[in-house]
Amino acid sequence: MKKIVSILILALAVTSAAMAQNGRTKFATDMYQAKHEMIIEELGLTQTQQKQFMPIYEQMEREIYQVNRNARALAKEVEKKKNPSDKDYEAAASALSRTRIQEGEIEAKYFEKFSKILSKKQLFQLKQAEVKFTREMLGKKKKGKQ
To answer: Where are the domains of the chain?
Structure first.
């Protein structure tokens, strides 16, 4: 279950960062907007808080996306090689494993920034809103497969 949640969080980060680029897909735009709307609603952000918080939150998402993108790129390079060495495999596996640590470090850095904008309760609610969004997206995905 934790693995699925991690994958969905990664997918959300990827989606958010992808939208920052010019070639936004409708799906990516919809996901981005839905996640941000849920966060705004769940945290009860004021207009002032929204203006301060959302750009910082989006920057955090872009940084997390970049970390994951770099690790995936290295893994793809190894997959494309005809005869990857153990050193190649080790480097790719290590990069993929470090992504969670790096994501945590990024989130910790942004937690400090968020704490200047959000109340203690809203800081707590932020993580709950992210998990709720992920669960809802998982639920919709499961319903679509049935």
So the answer is: 2-145
